[in-house]
Amino acid sequence: MSFIPGQPVTAVVQRIEIKKLRQGHNLILGFSIGGGIDQDPGQNPFSEDKTDKGIYVTRITPKGPADAAGLRMGDKIMQVNGWDMTVVTHDQARKKLTRKNEDVVRLLVTRKSLEDAVKHSMGNHPRQ
Q1: Is 32 in contact with 66 (CB distance < 8 Å)?
Q2: How far apart are CA 52 and CA 63, in angstroms?
């Protein structure tokens, strides 16, 4: 999925709610991210056209909070708790995800399998 920064985008999204795990004074999400408008999109293994500067999930901790919530490696994070994540730096994304005063993170993510499923279903049914 590619788009022009600052322009409306149409995407098939899934809502994922992750309850952070408390470990002492730390709140653990159980995943890592890559990408951002300040990063080289050519280094992003999940960007199909190597121009996408979005925020992607690069690692999931097995049996961690993100894994239990259904987040997958390669998911593109579109929103975090209502905040647009399509044109943010890596550090801005990290800060939105790790806010200390939020025990729950609500994400809107898109993934290739969601888009493919919609395209497939639209192809099987004539348009009205």
Answers
A1: no
A2: 29
Predicted TM-score (pTM) of the model is 0.80
Question: Does 3 have pLDDT greater than 60?
Answer: no
Q: Which residues pair with 15 in a beta bridge?
A: 108
Q: What tokens does 46 get?
A: 């999940």
Using CA atoms, how far apart are residues 22 and 63, in angstroms rounded to an integer?
Answer: 15
Say if residues 76 and 55 touch (Cβ distance below 8 Å).
Answer: yes
Q: CB of 93 within 8 A of CB of 77?
A: yes
Residues 113/56, Cβ–Cβ less than 8 Å: no
Tens-digit pLDDT profile for residues 64-95: 999 999 999 999 999 999 999 999 999 999 99
23 closest CA partner among 79, 58, 64: 64
